[in-house]
Design goal:
By secondary structure, this protein is mostly helical. Helix content is 69%, strand content 0%.
Amino acid sequence: MASKKSLEDFTKTIGKNLYRLRKARKENIETVAAAIQISPDLLNKIETGKYPKCKRGILFGLCDYYGVTPMELVQ
């Protein structure tokens, strides 16, 4: 089982990469959140690494939206 610290790092890495992808596309948080049917507040929590129990469906939706694989989010 992963330690709390490694889970925290993993969550923050995913969040930073999602934020970077959104900014590279010059999209606001509301647009992306609406496209994958979540609230802007939830997307903000994901991007800032403050939502460690993010459902796979949300992450896969974000990957589809940005055209990346889940592995690309964790690198």
